[in-house]
Design a protein that fits this description.
Strand content: 5-15%
Largest sheet: 6 strands, antiparallel
Distance between the termini: 58 Å
CATH superfamily of the largest domain: Aminoglycoside phosphotransferase (APH), C-terminal lobe
Number of helices: 13
CATH topology of the largest domain: Aminoglycoside 3'-phosphotransferase, Chain: A, domain 2
CATH class of the largest domain: Alpha Beta
CATH architecture of the largest domain: Alpha-Beta Complex
Number of strands: 11
Radius of gyration: 21 Å
Helix content: 40-55%
Bound molecules: adenosine-5'-diphosphate, 2-acetamido-2-deoxy-1-O-phosphono-alpha-D-glucopyranose, magnesium ion
């Protein structure tokens, strides 16, 4: 159901405890995972999402987990005098007090639409990225006293990069010859850089990195901005909130936001790493996370960027090899293009690694000296 205003969409939306008469139900946003619609009624606006049953086998458990996180965040936002209806997600129950409506194919859910919000797919102003960093750091800070045991893990091993590597090897066994032949350079790149899959995974296993409640999918379009003031308003897209490390959150934001081109840009000459954006994001993130981030974590933020960029390239390539089953595509070869931009970014990050680590330490020292009145 990709079209606007289908009667079935009205029927589904009407099953939720929404206010007013439904006027329209229209596809919305650019996420890769759900089918997302904006529902406008005579009173309010909502987000309606169809959960792909292949990716969300236990949607009820997922929703209970998300509702718990939303309530916790709501408490934090209220405590600092904010407006939870605009600063976090607010799930809307069904008229029969559940969180989902199931039809023969899938489950559907509804959130309040965050009014007067702007979603950016690209960064036009470097300071925007600093705001993203601060919002993401604060998000993890707000959840630092939330029991990770309460979370439902919808994607076991989501950022288990060695497991992603093994899945890639399995995909190679099954893939059509034509797809393997067309991705020879990328396959060699994956094999030559396998070491990147292991560092953070080992640090997590050895307890050098603590397991925290983290977002795990910190792409730019998962942060909404206030339409009037431009401030970062809300972190959204809670399906991947699971125990993990903030190094991955930092890294995922960097791999997407520091790319001067789009994630699926076919012309690789446009894919360049912005050091200026990196500095801005690091400044914001270190500020937002200053209450909880350990030294071990801080020293591995840049490794997080390399690991997650490798992992995303690997995932896009795997999906391309098996015939584009996971990420929604609009054109043939899009997942291979996405993989190529990741590996181009990774090449740049490998060259810049020491410099980026120095920037993190510089920005951290500035925050420390400001806070100690220096
Ligand atoms: P996906 O997992 O497919 O990325 P998201 O939950 O991120 O799905 O939603 C897709 C897009 O819809 C977001 O990038 C954002 O533009 C918009 N969106 C989602 N939830 C809301 C909301 N509550 N208010 C306003 N816009 C939203
Ligand atoms: C997906 O759902 P969306 O578009 O925010 C994916 C991320 C990838 C990202 C790459 C649940 O994010 O892990 O990094 O695409 N989310 C899921 O663009 O797999
Ligand atoms: Mg999203």
């Amino acid at each position: 159901m990709k079209f606007s205003n289908e009667p079935r969409l009205f029927e589904i939306a009407a099953g939720f405890a929404i206010e007013g008469r439904i006027l329209s139900v229209v596809p919305y946003g650019n996420g890769h995972i759900h089918q997302t619609f904006r529902v406008v009624t005579t009173e309010k606006a909502y987000i309606l999402q169809r959960l792909n049953p292949l990716l969300f086998p236990e949607p009820e458990k997922l929703m209970i987990s998300i509702v718990g996180v939303c309530e916790h965040l709501r408490g934090k936002i209220l405590a600092r005098g904010g407006n939870p209806l605009r600063e976090t997600l607010t799930p809307v129950p069904t008229k029969t007090a559940g969180w989902l409506i199931r039809d023969s194919e899938a489950s559907w859910r509804v959130f309040r639409f965050i009014e007067d919000s702007v979603c950016h797919e690209t960064i036009d102003d470097t300071d925007l990225f600093r705001k993203v960093g601060e919002a993401l750091g604060r998000f993890t800070s707000d959840l630092s006293d939330y029991d990770p045991g309460r979370l439902y893990v919808n994607f076991p091993g989501f950022h288990d990069t060695p497991a992603r590597f093994r899945q890639f090897l399995e995909a190679m066994e099954k893939a059509e010859k034509e797809r393997i032949d067309g991705a020879g350079t990328e396959i060699i790149f994956v094999l030559q850089n396998e070491n990147l899959a292991h560092g953070l995974a080992e640090d997590l296993r050895d307890g050098i990195l603590p397991l925290r409640v983290v977002h795990n999918d910190t792409k730019l379009n998962n942060v909404l901005f206030d339409g009037s003031s431009g401030r970062a308003l809300a972190v959204i897209d809670f399906d991947t909130i699971m125990p993990g490390t903030p190094c991955h959150d930092f890294g995922d934001a960097i791999r997407f936001g520091c790319n001067l081109a789009t994630e699926d840009e076919p012309d690789l000459s446009k894919v360049r790493f912005s050091i200026e954006r990196f500095r801005a994001f690091a400044r914001g993130y270190l500020r937002g996370s200053r209450n909880f981030l350990t030294e071990a974590e801080r020293l591995r933020l840049v490794s997080g960027a390399l690991t997650i960029t490798y992992e995303n390239g690997l995932r896009f390539l795997t999906d391309h090899l098996v015939g584009d089953r996971y990420y929604r595509i609009d054109r043939p070869g899009q997942n291979l293009d996405r993989c190529r931009t990741q590996f181009r970014m990774l090449e740049a990050m490998k060259t810049l690694k020491t410099r980026l680590e120095t920037i993190v330490e510089d920005e951290y020292q500035k925050i420390i000296s400001l806070e100690s009145g220096g």
